[in-house]
Amino acid sequence: MAKRLMLDTNVYDLIVARRGFAERLNQAVLAGAIEILKTRVQDEEIARIPNARKRAAMRAIRSRVVPVSAAAWSGPRAPSEDAQILATAAEAVDVLVTEDKEMRERAAAQPIEVWGFDALVAFVEAS
Predict the structure, then answer these.
(1) Count of alpha carbons within 13 Å of 110, Cβ hemisphere only?
(2) pLDDT in tens, 29-73
(3) Which H/E stretch holds residue 118?
(4) Under CATH, domain 3-126 is a member of which superfamily?
(5) CA of 60: how far to CAs of 26, 53, 101, 110, in Å?
(6) Do the beta carbons of residue 45 and residue 9 sit within 8 Å?
(7) Residue 77 has pLDDT above 90, yes or no
(8) Cα dist. 7→15, 36, 41, 77 in Å?
(9) DSSP run (H or E) holding 4
């Protein structure tokens, strides 16, 4: 069974910056080792990237969009983009991959495993 991942937008930057890694990641998706889920939040953040080549490379990462979790909207105010990603990840995936220290700290209270980029690389390389 594929390991379900959600990538924080900062991880997309690291993926496309590492030569050849996006291709290896996509191969792992095609092989069924991983499934990458994302929300409209990541899509919107990627759409705001001014560099067209970088934006296209990020969009080429194989993933599936899922709705933002209703749990993200449980507070009295509109949730931040990070809160939407975290709440959705907690419901929909096995692992959240992020380099954001604050998000990692908030994720500690959630029933979800959290990896940094290096752990993602190690998992994909071992697949």
Answers:
(1) 23
(2) 999 999 999 999 999 999 999 999 999 999 999 999 999 988 877
(3) helix 117-126
(4) 5'-nuclease (3.40.50.1010)
(5) 9, 11, 26, 29
(6) yes
(7) no
(8) 10, 7, 11, 24
(9) strand 3-7
For residue 67, the SS3 value is coil
In single-letter form, the type of residue at position 36 comes to: I
- Domains of the chain by residue range: 3-126
Phi, then psi, of 55 in degrees rounded to 5: -60, -45
Candidates 27, 93, 99, 33; CA nearest to 66 is 93
pLDDT confidence of residue 1 = 83
C-alpha span between 44 and 66 (Å, rounded): 13
Coil, helix or strand at residue 85: helix
What is the pTM for the complete model shown? Answer: 0.92
